[in-house]
Amino acid sequence: MTSIQPIRSKESFSIGDLSDPICIIGMPGVADIGKFAIDQLIGIFQAKKIYDIIFYGYPAGVIVDQSMLSAPKAEIFFWKDDDRKNDIFFITADAQPMNPREIYELSDFLIEFLNGFKMSFYVSLGGYPIKNGKVGNPSIFVTSTSQKYIDRLVEKDLCSTISKGVVIGANGLIPSLANLKYHTEGIVLLAETSNMALMNENMTDLNASLKLIKVLDTLFNLSLNIDFSKKNVDNMNQNLEKKRKELESELDVGKTIASKQEKGKVLYI
Predict the structure, then answer these.
(1) Residue 229 lies in a domain
(2) Residue 265: phi, psi to the nearest 5?
(3) pTM of the prediction?
């Protein structure tokens, strides 16, 4: 039996003909910035789950939420663009796999799986730890498989460049491997956050997540009308903290993803 199994959603539906589909990825990582952004986008678009991805490389435990059991998994959601510009696939997960080989294995599987839908572009979302304290208005940094996308985003004053570093985990591997294997272009958007997130696994940075959503809104002309008031952000933060504590009490997520800096390099997730 294969160690990775895609399971079709119970609410099965026909995707139909696709319009220039793109994939937006937000896996767990520093302050869960990318994952929270994806979770919000899934809710905003009311995207429908099309697949759960079960992987034997996930932590050997199950999640309990309101007495309901669920196995750790990756999830693929889909939103159909009625204007036929860009259909969107969203990818997130409960955890990253336990070791580097398994992260590669899952990333490669997702690339092969999504290639069947003729993906035209990949966007990954994550965090960019800096030495400063609390970041009030986080900058967004971009790295890409093509210089033209970097130039375009910098010229629009949406993003800044990264001189050197490493993007750890599936957030970086998926667009990179997709470009290597299928010549599909992609970018990684990283929201500035305090490096305290590297030392505190319970830290969240919703401002960074919401800034990523704003940049995506501008980049793809999504016409999102979202209330990011302080009150709503505080409410979202409280709900997220509650869910995080419940998850941590039941599931010991892998700590093998690098959470320390190498000499002369900065690690981003």
Answers:
(1) no
(2) -130, 160
(3) 0.84
